[in-house]
Amino acid sequence: MTKLTSGATKLYKKYRIVTHGLLFVIVMWLVSRLVIVVAMQAIAPILYTSPVQTHWRTAYPLDFVPGFIPQPSWELFSHWDGKWYRRIALTGYDYADDGRQHSVAFYPLFPMVIRGVMMLGLPFEVAGTLVSNLAFLGALLLLYSWTKNRHGIHVARWVIAVMAWCPFSLFCTVIYTEGLFLLLTTAALRAFDNRQHIQAAVWGALASATRATGITLMPAFLFVAWREKRPAIAYAAGLAVGIGLVSFSLYCGIRFGDPLAFVRVQKAWAQPNWWFILRDAIDAGRDNLIKVVMVFGGGYLLWYLRTKISSVAVVYGFCSLLLMIFSGALLSINRYAYGIVSLSIAFGMLLSQHLRWGYAVLIWFVISLFFYAIDFAVWNWVA
Question: Is 101 helix (H, G, I), strand (E, B) or coil?
Answer without folding.
Answer: coil
